[in-house]
Amino acid sequence: MQAGHVGARVAAATGTLRCNTMEKQQTYGQGLAENSAPPALFGVLIASLAENLAVHMEALDLTDKNAQVAGKTNRFTTSQ
What we know:
The protein is mainly α.
């Protein structure tokens, strides 16, 4: 017995109807378009983080040892 026939028998027995039409199949481009928002938002997040670090670095009192460590860490992070 072929797989298609088994599916029809299950549908008849359970009262469900499966419909696989070409209209419901997603194209490669549609998949890309639907999944492009998260990477774009991640880019915005990283840009915001870099801007925050830049502002933070300007506010550091470099005569303070802890601020010097923070500045060094921020410079390293923003250079990556």
